[in-house]
Give the backbone structure.
Amino acid sequence: MPSRKQLKSASKTAPQGAERLQKILARAGYGSRRACEEMIAQGRVTVDGRIARLGEKADPARQEIRVDGALLREGDEPPTYIALYKPRGVISTVSDPQGRRTVRDYIPLPQRLYPVGRLDADSEGLILMTNDGEITQRLTHPRYRHPRVYRVLVRGIPSSATLQRWRRGIRLEDGPARFDRVEIESGDKERTWLRVTLHEGRKHLVRRVVAALGHPALRLVRVAMGPIELGNLAPGKWRYLSQGEIRALRELARRAAPTRRRSLPRRRPARRTRMR
């Protein structure tokens, strides 16, 4: 991350009315702001022919911004919102250096589309794909804590005490973790289907929590993200979001927008009276 000195230096050289580069790139559909920050840090973004710095500001109306050599053109593509059923074994990225199949391979559209959130290769289910950088930022940043719902097939039959411990929370190597909701859907003597709701997005969190109490996950399917549900999509199939779903996403993003905290006036310390 850039230091305060670097941010001040970058801001001084920026034209009036400029915005942070990562915000411009996200709005143009290159991914979340965090993903765009990584692109800048990797030297893939140039401004007026020079490699951009992390923390730099620019004005796309007055400056030439390029990503991987291609000229940035804001507003060329209309916002696109897609729900995809990611099959097992597929990578939740738009490209893979090892040549594995990615979620982008399933959507034969020319737009730049990026996944919202991640699912590990062994997991399956709902992935949102969009070129709306602001929506991506609101749905993926840990600060906003949007609900995610999973169906999890675990080994064995969790007891009521185990379910209660998952709800209360347990401690993992990277800190405490808990399920907001966990219910048994069905099962037999060897396996049980759980329905789990949580608001965190730590790596492999669901798998680690169920395994910590002796019930490793055999299968994991994400069935909802915020207001969007997987529905009856089959593995590898996709659909456009409905207008109602898009409105719900935008409302979620609006509610998640950070608000400036009003600073309270400083209270003067009470004057101490001298005792006579």
Q: What stands out?
A: Confidence is low (pLDDT under 50) at residues 4-11, 259-265.
